[in-house]
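Pasting as-is:
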Amino acid sequence: MENVRNQESENLIKKINEASELDDLEQMLKNNVIEWKEDGLTYRVRKPNFSEQSDLRKAKVKRHNELRNDTNYKYEKQLIKELEKNGVSIPNIINRQLEINRKIEELQLQLAKLGSEKETEVKAITDYKIQIYELQTERNNLALEKMEYLSDSIETELMIFINSFTCALVLEQKESGGDWVKVFNSYEDFVNSKNDKLLEKASYYLSLIIFRPQSQNEN
């Protein structure tokens, strides 16, 4: 399991690097859209419009009702209590994540104070970067561990559904004439797609749009 989580952590870092390589990423995010090329085609994901948000809300309510009536799923609070009885403390995992966040912030502050003129500073910069990377890896591992423990929760399943349903709504491909058309005609088409590479990248880019902090100057 540890090897799997290490691999997942490396994948997360790789995705971040891929996103940073996109041209004008910050401007695209301000426009609530991200475009990229894949196998000679141009794709984009964007913030869902009002009509799509309405479709998403209806689908979310329906899926939530299905999960509540499915005995295979429980709410997180129920799972956390059961895990506590088996010696697994989700609150402890969360506290460790918060502790790591504080350590990373402290190291980043120390790193910002250094220049690169002196040999001693170059060594210190390298040491700080290594420490930050190791802490980020541990934090990712903890996040994945928590996710594994709560993978059967209603909240987790519902979030996965919301993310994938949204992606199915807003993933578009650019035609030769310049028009944008939806890649999938329905959520079922999205679920049955074999193009895992496209779906993974589209889902990640969409998360950058949906979960990024909004500045006060933006609508």
